[in-house]
Protein: DUF6090 family protein
Organism: Winogradskyella pulchriflava
Amino acid sequence: MENNKTNRYLKYAIGEIILVVIGILIALQINNWNEDRKATIIEENFFDSVLIDIEKDEEKLIYYEHFHTKRIEYLDTLLTYVRNPKRPMGLNKFAQYIEPLFYSVSPTVYNTTFESAKSSGVFSNIKAKDLMKQLSQYYADFTQIENTFNSITRFVENQLEPLLYNFPEDYMTSETGRLVINEEDVNFFYKKIASIEDQRNLNTDYNAILRTPKLENIIIGDMGRTFNIIGKIETRIVDLRQLRTKIINRD
């Protein structure tokens, strides 16, 4: 009888141990499932926010492309008149085509979601590692856009502006900025300049500027840099759209 009791108790104890182990395993599985579920939600929210940033990025890039495409048109027009001295341009037209060249844009990238996730340690929980590498490379490549944009700004400051320092700006009217493309409204500026009457009776010889060989060099240099910018913008747009497709179609 004692042996039978011992056997029963032993079987009972083993059964209890098995049940406890099974309970622990189930609890661990549930905990893992919950952690995976939380990680999945975090990853989904991350990529949803990244898609919003990419949408903003694309809008900016399209604006930059339009801005620089118009710049090429203005440079092309000026070069046509520079190389054809028998074709009169007129002071007002000269002003309207030269003025947009003084404007440049500062590139913006929408990477708030990416940078916030990187600083908060979210990256370690994201399973789509290859996609994260591509996203990281996309944002790292933004420096190429910055450098090309800055090259235009420096070129204008160092080449175009000094050439026109001695050229009286009495040619400005309220219509001078008509072709200027800028995210901020510049109409008030030109109207303000035009509202101050110039009583100096200066003879503004714009042809002297057009006949200056340096202007041709500046136009061609500006045009080359602008074509380079457009090429980089177009490449970035392609990369952006491919990246967006991969994010949308990720497993």
About this structure: Residues 2-248 form one domain. The CA atoms of residues 81 and 88 lie 8 Å apart. The mean pLDDT is 88. The chain has one domain: 2-248.
